[in-house]
Specification:
The complex is a heterodimer of chains A (1009) and B (173).
Chain A lengths: L2 E2 L8 E10 L2 E7 L3 H7 L6 E2 L6 E2 L12 E4 L6 E5 L10 E4 L13 H4 L8 H5 L4 H15 L15 E14 L3 H13 L3 E4 L19 E2 L2 E2 H13 L4 E4 L2 E7 L3 E7 L10 E15 L3 E3 L12 E3 H11 L1 E2 L4 E5 L3 H11 L6 E4 L7 H8 L4 E3 L1 E7 L6 E6 L8 E4 L2 E5 L2 E3 L2 H5 L4 E4 L4 E4 L14 E3 L9 H18 L32 H4 L3 E3 L4 E2 H9 L5 H8 L12 H12 L3 H4 L13 H5 L16 H6 L3 E5 L2 E6 L7 H14 L2 E4 L4 E6 L3 H8 L12 E7 L5 E11 L2 E6 L4 H14 L7 E4 L4 E7 L3 H8 L14 E6 L2 E6 L8 E7 L3 H11 L6 E2 L2 H10 L34 H4 L10 E8 L10 E7 L5 E13 L4 E9 L8 E5 L5 E7 L14
Chain B lengths: L4 E2 L5 E5 L2 E8 L15 E4 L2 E7 L2 E7 L3 H11 L5 E5 L4 E7 L3 H6 L16 E6 L2 E7 L5 E6 L3 H11 L10
Antiparallel strand pairs in B: 1-2, 2-8, 3-6, 3-7, 4-5, 5-6, 8-11, 9-10, 10-11
Classes of the chains: A alpha+beta (1009), B alpha+beta (173).
């Protein structure tokens, strides 16, 4: 049984007990514990059930590589599934639940699948659930979803009360990993003068060194390693240009030195609405990955039973938390490092059952020490079976080179295993760093000559310490020092000469690879030896995949799901690759690794969203008159990032009634529109006219100052992109109005052409959209309303249709454009945005006796459709050219060129069979469904009904008392009077006649009044 | 618009009103009869702040009442020279952010290098805040000034006030 020892545990504060709950049981731990160490201290060796077979599982690791100990943390709004107990710092009141078990952890009905494992091999789903096809959706998938899986997704109605944020930082050197190598790198780079950020995923500095390297008895510069760490941290603390952060994980390395780091600010100090996670977005010159190494499990039969743990984790629990993994643990290894576990356990008075060393080669110094300590060492041995149902009760020893014949049984209650070490190369590999196979240490390590390279072609990722394959203390400090110096020097920081740190050197006997134990294990043993604990992938599954032809490691991974769980195969990948290579009879480096992708460990969605939630989710643009619209209870619709009033309902008036009222008021008397959102771009310079002649299809250079002209803008491919009225302000200056949604991209379009193609033309542009409030005063009484404000002569001759003037209107400096998008007598008045609301209210007061009222975007749309005016986005969709819309009159015939002209001359663009704009009048006066298609006879090549046109805009016109619509129809203008059929989605077929799109006042007498 | 002030967090944030702004586009080589800031810098002359916005763009901030005079002077000084000067006094919102953590608060929102070693009085950067365009500079007294378009003033205000919530010091600068 696992237990807390009477003394020891450098991370815990025994004077500060903490109470927590696991599956409803109230348990005690200490401040400084992780959830995993506290569970072990309470002899909770069984902590979860496996993904596929529901096998009992215990804690295997001590860090983020943990595959088994995943829990559901907290409840209600705070609930989060799949949290690793090994990286969850204990706090008072913590509530955790085990996952993937029913009805309880110790009594799980799903475990019946474990007995079926013979018939649930790799690829089982693909083979078994293939037929009948309809069963997949309705039978198989629901069944699999119920029985497989880890934690539950949170309740969709739950709302996370915690807070998250981002932080942008620019540094010269980022060092990921606060172990001895990373600390040494930070010192070297910091002393050289570079701006350094050193981050460590755990809450503590020093990494594995105090627990490894002879149980921390090794030294650097003759200082014991834990003291040395403290001294280095103290020195780093004196450097103002160096920052050190714990609880901050390097999550991903991206191109050009961009790194995401995930800081767990408040996970260990929960509080209502407190800051929980911070996502750091770091730009850096050099990245040093000092991410250490991860110990490999051994694939022996029964290796997934609770009580089997990595030897390094056993050391961590002992040294950091004063917890022993068992009373009679067995140590199982193929390398020297695991002997330290036995020694440390023995030093704490724990009775070590035996050290089973699979190696047969020369025994090294540690084996000698073991013998001197009176520990039993079985050389060349292996484990062929594990006794116990829910936890380890004993093992059968065999010859590692044999087929598993039992030699003896040893009683033990835990197994500390070590299959060697794999450098944590994830961050090195994220943006393209290559790996090389180390045939001496049996691991992939960074190929230092093939780092990720930046925009300048220089490598920007440097691996250091164990992460670079430098496994001993002496090599790690030396490598870390060199990495720090190199990073700083490459960025131009040379500083004063520094002496290289020197650490104790210890000779180690060579590791011997053990990919399957025993090496000649028959299939009955291979199917009990687990590779991937989290996804329940066994040695036999990978071998089956190889037999079935999955030679690529990426394919074998997906077929078997090896390494596809939340731990992304941190423990299983190398063992799985070795098994696959063996099965295929090829060397491991030829098989290679799967791709390492960010994040290193899962990060919260909250941290990705940061503070951009609620009112900060999306920028909502507000016009200078927005407050007034809101006070009136306007109903808004999104237009770009604006929210424009759709209509202004009065009392319990319906939206359609409000729209009809607004239109009739405007057509019969006068209405007001907030047109401030329209784009307003000033174009000035001796070549301004020349530029506009290129940007617009029409000719703007001939426009006279004081006059306005409607223009169309096309893309290079000839498609209509934007439209609007251009006013010539003076000889050199034009004001281009764009659509609401087009302001920014049309300005960018202008600058694009000016800066890249016509850089020698003398033109400047300025986007003045937000400088002005623009108010449209529309209707037969509009002139009278304006004249009542006084200050400007707006008579028919003084300001004719399509003219503009400026002056003081009611004491406000204003520019007045006599333009109309409704067909009525109409003015648009632009004033400084700050004065928009003042002018708006003056209009309301002046037009009171006419019943003046604001109208919204829907009334605007209906009135323009009554008049046959097109709307970008309705009549256009990126495939429509001006000629399709009958806008040939707005294209200057004699111009040599304009953007889109060449494209519009292509055969498909001048094809007489293009769909062209017409008006559509329903036979019975009803409203055509928007977007409906007109059907033709016959079928298309793919068997669908042929079509000959579609509705682009459709409204009920209160002015005409009937439905009106526009549409694009095959040879439409040539077929006036024809009737077409438009099937609706409501089952009805609408009949409509092709007519002129101008339904209202085609003579134009009203706008010219 | 009512003037807002936020003082309950790790930085003090307030609306700044009454400033006039003039945008000037003119070639970098053109001599002006006034101080012209270096690349990426602001400069001060009397009550006027001049910001470098791009190689051929400057932004002047001056008391609102002086805008007309400034435009007149520029027109005079640049007679015959290709340029574009525009009154943009109403186009933008201006904020003042100050306090020991002011730079950190803004570094939660802007992807630029705001570390004190790199961002000192006179430095100007055009960048973004959250999802919208914004510019930031440091006054001579160390306070930050932030501008964005007026339509998104509330959004930017909400982001800044949130980033300045009590207890959210990063401790990085």
């Amino acid at each position: 049984m696992s237990t807390r020892l009477k003394s020891g545990g450098r991370r815990i504060d025994r004077s500060r007990p903490v109470t927590f709950s696991f599956d409803g049981a109230r348990l005690r731990g200490y401040r400084g514990d992780t959830l995993a160490s506290a569970l072990l201290a309470n002899d909770r060796m069984l902590v979860g059930r496996s993904f596929k077979y529901h096998r009992p599982r215990g804690i295997v690791a001590s860090g983020s590589e943990e595959p088994n100990a995943l829990v559901g943390l907290e409840e209600g709004d705070l609930f989060e599934p799949n949290q690793r107990a090994t990286t969850t710092e204990l706090y008072d009141g913590l509530t955790a639940r085990s996952q993937n078990r029913w009805p309880s952890l110790s009594m799980d009905f799903g475990a019946v699948t474990s007995r079926l494992s013979r018939v649930l091999p790799a690829g089982f789903y693909y083979k078994t659930f293939l037929r009948p096809r309809s069963f997949w959706k309705h039978v198989y998938e629901p069944l699999i979803r119920r029985s497989a899986g880890l934690g539950y997704a949170p309740n969709p109605e739950a709302r996370d009360p915690d807070r998250y944020e981002h932080f942008y930082l620019h540094v010269d050197v980022l060092i990921v990993g606060g172990g001895i190598a990373g600390i040494q790198s930070a010192l070297a780079a910091g002393r050289a003068g570079a701006r350094v950020l050193l981050i460590e995923q755990s809450a503590h500095w020093g990494g594995r060194s105090p627990a490894d390297h002879s149980g921390g008895k090794q030294s650097v510069n003759n200082i014991p390693v834990d003291k040395y760490v403290d001294e280095c941290l103290a020195e780093l603390g004196t450097m103002p240009h160096v920052q050190c952060r714990t609880r901050t994980m390097g999550a991903g390395v991206y191109d050009h030195g961009y790194v995401l780091a995930y800081e767990r600010v408040g996970d260990h100090l929960p509080g209502e609405g407190a800051l929980r996670h911070r996502l750091w977005k770091i730009r850096t010159g050099r990245i040093i990955t000092a991410t250490g190494a991860i110990e490999r499990p051994i694939a022996f039969p029964g290796n997934d039973l609770p009580g089997v743990m990595l030897a390094s984790a056993a050391r961590d629990y002992l040294i950091d938390f004063g917890v022993s993994m068992g009373k009679h643990p067995l140590v199982l290894a193929n390398n020297d490092s695991a002997y330290e576990t036995a020694f440390l356990l023995q030093d704490q008075g724990v009775d070590v059952a035996a050290i089973v060393d699979a190696r047969t080669g020369d025994a090294g110094g540690v084996a000698q020490e073991a013998v001197e300590r009176g520990l039993r060492v079985i050389r060349g041995g292996g484990v062929s079976s594990v006794k116990g149902r829910r936890r380890v009760e004993g093992v059968t020893i065999c010859d590692q080179r044999g087929a598993g014949t039992a030699l003896e049984e040893i009683s033990c209650d835990a197994i500390a295993m070590s299959g060697g070490w794999s450098p944590a190369v994830h961050l090195w590999s994220h943006s393209g760093g290559k790996l090389t196979w180390d045939a001496r240490q049996f691991c992939f390590r960074p190929d230092v000559d093939n780092s990720a390279r930046g925009a300048d072609g220089a490598p920007y990722v440097i691996a250091a310490g164990a992460a670079s394959g430098e496994m001993t203390l002496a090599a790690a400090v030396k490598d870390g020092h060199a990495a720090g110096l190199r990073a700083a020097a490459e960025l131009g920081y040379n500083g004063a000469a520094q002496s290289e740190p020197v650490a104790t050197r210890v000779e180690e006997a060579a590791i011997e690879p053990v990919w399957i134990m025993p090496s000649q294990a028959p299939v009955t043993l291979r199917e009990k030896a687990f590779l991937d604990f989290q996804n329940d992938v066994k040695v036999s599954d990978v071998e089956l995949a190889a037999r079935e032809g999955f030679e690529s490691v990426e394919h074998a991974k997906r077929y078997t799901t090896l390494g596809m769980a939340t731990d992304q195969g941190k423990l299983s990948n190398i063992n799985g690759i070795a098994i696959l290579s063996d099965a295929l009879g090829r060397p491991i480096p030829q098989t290679g690794t799967t791709t390492f992708r960010p994040p290193y460990t899962p990060i919260s969605f909250g941290s990705i969203a940061g503070s951009q939630t609620g009112p900060r989710f999306l920028p909502i643009r507000r016009t200078p008159i927005q407050d007034w619209h809101e006070e009136q209870g306007a109903y808004f619709e999104p237009v770009g990032h604006w929210r424009r009033p759709y209509c202004y309902p009065r009392g319990d008036e319906s939206h359609s009634d409000a729209v009809a009222r607004e239109i009739l008021q405007t057509r019969n008397h006068v209405g007001l529109l907030d047109a401030s959102t329209l784009g307003k771009i000033v174009v000035k310079g001796p070549d301004a006219g020349r530029l506009l002649d290129m940007l617009y299809t029409g000719r703007m250079s001939t426009l006279k100052p004081g006059r306005c002209r409607y223009g169309l803008m096309c893309s290079e491919n000839g498609f209509l992109m934007d439209d609007g009225v251009v006013a010539r302000l003076d000889e050199e200056t034009f004001l281009c109005h764009t659509t609401t949604g087009g302001a920014d991209h049309i300005h960018a379009h202008m600058e694009d052409w000016l800066q890249t193609e016509w850089w020698d033309w003398k033109v400047y542009t300025a986007n003045l959209t937000e400088q002005f409030a623009q108010i449209a005063v529309v209707g037969p009484k509009s002139r009278e309303v304006l004249e009542r404000l006084g200050g400007m002569n707006l008579g028919r001759d003084a300001l004719p249709f399509m003219g503009w003037c400026e002056g003081m209107l009611a004491g406000i400096s204003a520019r007045i454009f006599r333009i109309s998008f409704s067909g009525e007598l109409s003015y648009e008045i632009a004033v400084a945005a700050d004065q928009g609301i003042e002018l708006w209210e003056k209009f309301l007061a002046a037009g009171q006796d006419f019943g003046i009222s604001p109208y919204g975007t829907e009334a605007l749309h209906v009135m323009r459709a009554e008049k046959g005016f097109i709307m970008i986005g309705d009549e256009t969709d990126g495939t429509v050219i001006p000629q399709d819309l009958g806008l040939d009159w707005a294209i200057a015939k004699g111009k040599d060129d304009y953007i889109g002209k060449r494209a519009q001359m292509r055969s498909h663009m001048i094809d007489p069979d293009r769909w062209k704009l017409v008006g559509l009048e329903t036979v019975d006066g009803s409203v055509l469904p928007e977007g409906a298609y007109a059907v033709a006879s016959g079928k298309t090549s793919i068997g669908q009904r042929a079509t000959q046109g579609r509705v682009t805009s459709s409204y009920h016109s209160p002015t005409l008392g009937r439905g009106i619509a526009m549409g694009l129809v095959l040879r439409g203008p040539e077929r006036m009077g024809d009737e077409l059929e438009f099937p609706g989605t409501d089952g009805q077929v609408y009949k409509a006649r092709l007519v002129s799109p101008v339904f209202y006042n085609p003579e134009g007498t009203k706008q010219d009044a | 618009m009512r003037k807002r002030q936020f003082d309950g967090g790790i930085a003090r944030i307030e609306d700044v009103e009454g400033y006039g702004m003039v945008s000037l586009r003119v070639s970098a080589e053109t001599a002006l009869r006034r101080a012209r800031p270096q690349r990426g810098q602001a400069c001060w002359e009397g009550e006027t702040t001049t910001l470098w916005m791009s190689p051929d763009e400057l932004l002047f901030l001056c008391p609102r009442a002086e805008v007309a005079g400034l435009l007149r002077d520029l027109a005079q000084d640049l007679a015959g020279v290709h340029h574009l000067a525009a009154d943009v006094s109403s186009a933008r919102a201006l904020f003042d952010v100050r306090g020991r953590n002011a730079l950190e608060v803004m570094a939660k929102l802007m992807p630029i290098d705001l570390s004190p070693q790199k961002f000192s009085p006179g430095r100007v950067r055009r960048s973004r805040i959250g999802q919208v365009a914004a510019a930031i500079w440091m006054q001579q007294d160390g306070a930050l000034r932030v501008i964005c378009f007026r339509s998104v003033a509330d959004y930017v205000w909400d982001l800044m006030v949130d980033a300045a919530r009590p207890g959210t010091e990063v401790g990085a600068f």
